[in-house]
Structure formats: C-alpha cells, structure tokens
Amino acid sequence: MLKDPRTTGALAPSSARLAWELANLAKGSEHVLELGAGTGAITQALSKVVNGEKFEVVELQEKLVASLKHRYPNVKVVHSSAHSALDSCPWRGSVAVVSSLPFRSLPPAMKRLTVQSLLAFLKSSPGSQLIQYTYGLSVPFSAPADFKWQQIKWVLTNFPPACIWVLTKTPDR
Questions:
Q1: Rounded to whole angstroms, how far apart are CA atoms 106 and 53?
Q2: 158 — phi, psi (to 5°)?
Q3: pLDDT, tens digit, for every residue of 139-159?
C-alpha cells in the first residue's frame, strides 16, 4: 500500500461477510477468475465454493503472490496484470470474474487497458459476469450501452462499507 497506493484498494482486507457475498455470486459459474487477490480474504471464501481446477487467482504484487501460493497450494495463482490475465484466459462460457481492483485509483493507462480487456472478455464469453465491489456510490467504471451494471447489495459490516456490482453483456438482438 505504501509503495504504490494507486494499485491497492483498501487499508484493510475485505471482511468475511463481503468475501462470502462475492463467493456466493460466483459459485454457480463454470470457472472463476479472481483479479487483484491481495492478501487472499476473498480467495479464501472462493476456494470453499469453487473447484480448484476451475479457479485461478491473479495478483500483480510479487510478495502477495508468494503469500497466496503458500496459503492456497491447491489454487492456481498467477503473477500478472489483470489485463494480461484476461487477454490470455482460455476459458469461455460461464466465467465469473471476481474483482477487487481499485478502478477509481488505478493509474489511467492501467485502468484503460484493464477495462478494455474486461469488456472484450465478457463479449467473447457469453454468460460471463464481472463481480466487482466498490466503496463509492457510483458504478466502478462506465461501460458501453451493450453492457449493463446491476447494483446487488451493500455490505455495511465491511470497513469501509462496500457495494457489490455485477456487469454483464446484454444479449445481442
């Protein structure tokens, strides 16, 4: 957090309640890709509801990657940027992308690349969804008209309180 605050979203790990809410939204998907795993608070909840071979964790900070690999030896942990992981993800079909990325504080170039990769992934993988939480009142980032944000719920027991959002591609007509 102190070295590069714009790539870290919060001072404290996500609460167990927030982690369980996110995991429950993802658990019916064929595959789960977690972006920005950090200390693994959400990884822990996801690992309890998602089969290990259908679950991949992505983290940019090398020290956190090492910690995640040690704590979750049965989960594939990848040291990568979110956009690179999305661009090379082999899964299609029903994929839940569970994100802890701090879109409001990401450097503009990183945010642009990540959003482009997310939108391209969701377009190429019908039935997939981005599950994202924020600490603000508005959507995590603006999306084109052929996508739809849905506000799911507020988790007031998280510090700070967090809002869960889901982004999906609207069906082609």
A1: 30
A2: -80, 150
A3: 999 999 999 999 999 999 999
Q: Is 36 within 8 Å of 64 (Cβ atoms)?
A: no
Q: Whose structure tokens read 């064929």?
A: 30
- The pLDDT tens digits for 70-95 are 999 999 999 999 999 999 999 988 99
Cβ-based neighbour number of residue 170 at 10 Å: 10
**CA 110, chain centre distance (Å):** 15
Q: Give the mean model confidence (pLDDT) for residues 113-142.
A: 96
Pseudo-torsion of CA 71, 37, 98, 103, nearest 10°?
170
pLDDT digits (tens, 9 = 90+) for 99-113: 999 999 999 999 999
142, two tokens = 């603006």
**pTM of the model as a whole:** 0.92
Q: To which H or E segment does residue 56 belong?
A: strand 55-59
- Torsion sign across C-alpha atoms 72, 74, 78, 84: negative
Is residue 149 packed enough to be buried (19+ CB in 10 Å), middle (13-18) or exposed (0-12)?
middle
